[in-house]
Amino acid sequence: MRRAVTDERGGSVGAGTGYTVVMAGSSDELSAGRRTRRIVYVDAQGRQTLEAAEAVRGEIVEHDAHGRPARRTKFFLERHELPWLPVSEPAFLLWVLVGLFAVWLVIGFVLIT
Question: Is 108 exposed, middle or buried (0-12, 13-18, 19+ CB in 10 A)?
Fold first, then answer.
């Protein structure tokens, strides 16, 4: 028969010993509505901007009810042209798609005949 082990105050001690006790906050602290956001956008010249459409990189930080960062999201957008590609990348990818479709049609035709 197992006996419950208690500490000097009568509280239960067991599987959680050695770990920090986590206290849940009030229900309004736990809701996502209490989080605040700090958004920083940076344009192509490296200056901070308020326009999301001009941003090429940035960071979104959500803070919990106590002001501690709860979630951090960094983003960046880069546009690189491939020097060996004579057309734009979307046009190249469209032609790759057309080529794969043609190969699929040829394989289908060969399998039917």
Answer: exposed
